[in-house]
Amino acid sequence: MASELRLVGVGVRYGGVQALDDVSLAVAPGRVLGLIGPNGAGKTTLINATTGFATLAAGSIVLGERRIDGLPPHRIARAGIARTYQNIRLFGALDVRTNLAAGAYAQAGRLSDDDARALLARAGVPDVPLAATAAALPYGDQRRLEIARALAARPTIVMLDEPAAGMNPAETARLVTTIRAIAGEGIGVLLIEHDMALVRAACDDVVVLNFGAVLARGTPAEIARNPAVIDAYLGTSGEATA
Amino acid sequence: MNLGTFYAQHSRLIDQIGINALLALSLSVSLQAGQLALAQAAFAGIAAYVSAIAAMQFGFPLAAAIAVAIAAAALAAAALAYPVRKLRGIFLAIATIGFGEIVRVVANNVDITGGAEGLSGIPNDVTTPIIYGALLLVALALVALARTKFALAVKLTREDENAARGVGVDVGMVRFASLVIGGAIAGLAGALYAHAFYFLTPTDFGFARMEQILVWCVIGGVTSPAGAVVGAVLLSILPEVIRPLADYRELTSGLILLGVILFVPNGLSMLWAKRGV
């Protein structure tokens, strides 16, 4: 069941723009890989390429033993990769219960109310009513519901695209617990995040993207000390050494 | 007035209402999947001609003629599904209306359909119980379908095609299936029409009819099959009950449509389903 996601030499081109260039990385079961980088570095493109929403110009993507690049999005979802979106993409007009049932669409059988509540609890929002309309929930709860919907698919890999965006510090701190718990279940997590405190607390490994290419990789502590990363992303080296 | 006289006086209207309800259901299948595919009248027209020709020229019994007609309509829908697979919204509407016009023009110009003069003398062997029996069967089939996972896939496709793909819904298959199922239902309605009214011209299933079907669905509530039926029944009866309205049929239906869009944007189905989807 637990299998590794490997991207090898992945390239994506949008018209004349090289959005991703020769990117290789692996998301291992039970580990959290942070993906950081400036805006436009290609982070979301990497999730889109993995989940079949962007076409590869080069490279390959393998889940366990199975090559998944070139498959349509719904086949990749069924293969065990679930995701959330930078701009929340819940089924806003539908209730919480149906959103979770949507997440479990590819699973056999029906999602019971108990199953639905268990998913909400794992995503850190046990008290959200199942009959509530998704779009009417507070922003932070919507982000959590998206995570719960991803978990409903019983995924091997979960890709979270800026799950802390719009959350306050207390909510962000609780999100760390949620993400670590997901990895604790043996799921491989890829986390796109700008908040370095969250990255440091939640991630086992970090990959830094810049202009579509891998700039650096290592543990969060190593990345925080890397001069090239500091220069490109975390702040000018002048500030860092001051 | 007893029931027998009432039926004798209004049997044509009663039959027409049943057929209209079927046409409304056929379009609601597409609308529920969020697809503004407006070829239902054309599918019905194809089936009407196929069943009429099967009965008149090849001596098919009624059941066989209807079955062949439904198959022809479903096949036409399947054939149309491929070229429109990338079209959405207004572009899909235009392409499918164009398909309807092609069907009408062809029917107008080939010999086997009788051209503009149409076909007459179609065996008149569809009765009111057959029409309402068919309507009941289709309604039951749709209720059964609403309990399956396919119904969830349809709902998710309507709400957000990409998010639906992201949870494993084969959106292309949903769009294809909804067009073909809707086409088959429209085909049934068309075949019944041919045999209930035994006279058929190319304009019977032209753009004006398609527009009527859409109005019924919008008035009833675009995502509600029951609403579509109510819309069809209401707008079929209204001009008969209020006689002056019959002369201004298009104007009246236009005003009603405007009123619904302005005041009950989700259609009449909102009146009995307070919340929900």
Task: Tell me what the structure shows.
The complex is a heterodimer of chains A (242) and B (277). The termini of chain A are far apart. Chain A has 10 helices and 10 strands. With 242 residues, chain A is of the alpha/beta class. In chain A, strand 4 and strand 5 form a beta hairpin. The model of chain A is unreliable at 237-242 (pLDDT under 50). With 277 residues, chain B is mainly alpha-helical. Chain B has one domain (10-204). Chain B contains 13 helices and 2 strands; from the N terminus they run ααααβααααβααααα. Chain B has helices spanning 3-32, 40-58, 62-81, 89-109, 128-146, 149-159, 161-166, 171-197, 207-220, 225-241, 244-247, 249-263, 269-272, and strands at 119-120, 199-200. In chain B, strands 1-2 form a two-stranded antiparallel sheet. In chain B, helix 1 crosses helix 10, helix 2 crosses helix 8 (171-197) and helix 9 packs parallel to helix 12 (249-263). Chain B starts with a helix and ends in a 5-residue tail after the last helix. The A-B interface holds A 51-53, 72-74, 77-78, 82-83, 85, 89-95, 98, 101-103, 105-106, 133, 149, 153 and B 149, 152-153, 155-156, 159-160, 162-172, 275, 277.
